[in-house]
Amino acid sequence: MPQLPLGPAGTPGVEVRVETGAGAQVRRSVLPGGIRVLTEAMPGQRSATFGAWVAVGSRDETDGHHGSTHFLEHLLFKGTPTRDAMAIASAFDAVGGEANAATGKEHTCYYARVLDADLPMATEVIVDMVTSALLDEGEFASEREVILEELAMTEDDPADVAYERFAGQVFGQHPLGRPIGGTPATIGAVPRDAVYEHYQRVYTPAELVVTAAGGVDHDALCEQVLAGVARGGWSLETSAVPAARRATGEAFTSRVAAVPGMPTEASALTVHRSTEQANVLLGGFGPAGNDERRFTLTVLNAVLGGSMSSRLFQEVREKRGLAYAVYSFGSTFADAGMFGLYAGCAPGKVTQVVELLDEQWRLLATEPISSDELERGIGQMRGALVLGLEDTSSRMSRLGRSEITTGEFLTLDETLARLRAVTAEDVRALAADLYGQPRHLTVVGPFETDVAATALPRS
After folding, report:
1. 98 is a catalytic site residue
2. Where exactly are the structural domains of the chain?
3. pLDDT digits (tens, 9 = 90+) for 213-257
4. N or C, which end of the chain is more exposed by having fewer CB within 10 Å?
5. pTM for this structure?
6. Among 3.30.830.10, 3.30.70.1230, 1.10.8.420, 3.40.50.970, what is the CATH number of 267-455?
7. Which of 73, 143, 207, 373 is catalytic?
8. What are 117-148's pLDDT values in tens digits?
9. CB-based contacts of 9: which residues, under 8 Å, 6+ apart?
């Protein structure tokens, strides 16, 4: 089956569609105001997942607005002129549905999973929230305290602390290095007017992407979205086009950062926490979200640290019993990426564990993997992809990320074909590029000395 090229911004009224198998069909329409609507109708599904996306995240915040994106995620559930917070919550509870939101570094999504018959209700409520949030001063003050408690909870989780600090090391002073939720200082300082200004600036029809999957009628959903946006008072000019996608970066090469201004030297950071275990992260830059090697990266992760048969699991946990949790991971953004290896171990074993993480990474970069490892890695990712798409929420999210990030929706067959095309040499070459980047080490645990500086592998 062909891939669906989502193309540039698009023209209002223009539609593209593609059959995705088993009677399912993806459709994309550009509505007045530049609103984009993408659906995947799945015959026989009695549920549907709806998402309203804004392609703005924590990296887009300006000085004085840090934390505003995550603040808005909370405040949009606090009420509109037509329904208060209780009415919003009750609407979904009354039908057994689920509603939530997520803020990322490059986008925010408000979503709900309901029975197909209740999709019009979910659409109406979420569109009302997105277009007509009150951002009441009293609610703002109380929600500030809730967010500060959320940040405190994160600081109490040593794994979360490790990931936040690690991202700061990899990306430095670049906006990608900032915590998504802000800090206690920025949340405590940001005024309601700054958050409202951020809301008015970035929540516009041209930035809005609506996606839905499951038991959904595309034409009916488009009508419901337009009606909801009109009730919210947003402009629906027929000549308006969607906002341009975020600029993407060139593929990184050995020891070259994907984005100017990011750190070019290795670093080590030890964070003291009174824990029984040390949380260890070793890694650096990775491919951006539009890099063709993103398919190779998934296979590399499967082989290195993505399963019970992976090298890290076998070497660190099974053979030596040094960790319960050990794995590798990759995070991609429009113009940069991050790659890392994680392990949780006894504080006295940090140096030994870091040496093993580095050794397995280096071996992957210098010696081609076996044919058995390659087939197992590809098979793992193929199975995970297919099983994941049994869920309407996964399909809804896939539509949104495709529209916002790459501008290309791949059918399942096309995605599987790209995975099958990955070779052992592709994996080795990418591992070598990753290994050639400045490496950063974060260690969180009960340390009085700078254990990370001692354990950091030298090139």
Report:
1. no
2. 7-231, 267-455
3. 999 999 999 999 999 999 999 999 988 899 999 887 665 554 444
4. C
5. 0.92
6. 3.30.830.10
7. 73
8. 999 999 999 999 999 999 999 999 999 999 99
9. 34, 241, 242, 243, 244, 245
